[in-house]
Amino acid sequence: MTIASYKDEAYHIIKEKIIRLELLPGEKISRKQFVSMLDIGDTPVREAILQLKREGLLVIRPQSGTFISKINMQQVREAKFVREKLESAIVVEAVGIIDDAQIESLRQIVEMQEIYLKNGNSEKFFELDEEFHQFFYLVTDKTHVYTWLLDLNVHLNRYRHLTLKVKDFDWMNILQQHWDIYEALKAKDADLIANLVSRHLDLVDENYEAVYGEFHEYFD
């Protein structure tokens, strides 16, 4: 494997750990710790760190060290704005082309979410939340748009992962909104589904007080 390949591997592993909050916002971490954690050489790790710094996920402070960046709500809201505009258009497009088998696939996703929620498994519920949204990009053959959004939504996704740590978070509200979106899709109601998706993504702002209240130290 080349140095570039090792660098890419280090970059993706560290980035995923930051997004999933395995590395916490504001946490100090050294290059030596990354090398030990990843079992990858110093040079590719250094290059990965520089790339993550350029993307705003790491902060390097002279004489202080390297830190995981805190969550920036302005960037979260800007990412949510872009996703809301794109996703509202994509679900409307899906209404015009989706078939019964695909509608059934979406129903199964939401049904599994309901089962996991009843069993208290918010991690699995969250994984299926990703699958729920990705579903519409697959139906409309917009997978490259979805991949692009994942890169754009780094701070948004960190924020969303933080909701997993909030005590008494209202997962039932998310589930009900997913059922409402499913029913609108089944009814082929384009105006309703666009409105529902927009309202659904507004949960980012609606949940802010609960998330910030418990984890204010993770925010800029």
Automatic annotation (TrEMBL):
UniProt domain HTH gntR-type: residue ranges: 4-71
Protein origin, superkingdom: Bacteria
Key words of the record: DNA-binding, Transcription, Transcription regulation
TM annotation in the entry: none
Entry-linked CDD domains: WHTH_GntR
InterPro entries (UniProt xref): GntR_C, TF_FadR/GntR_C, Tscrpt_reg_HTH_GntR, WH-like_DNA-bd_sf, WH_DNA-bd_sf
PANTHER family documented for this protein: HTH-TYPE TRANSCRIPTIONAL REPRESSOR RSPR, TRANSCRIPTIONAL REGULATOR, GNTR FAMILY
The protein, known as: GntR family transcriptional regulator
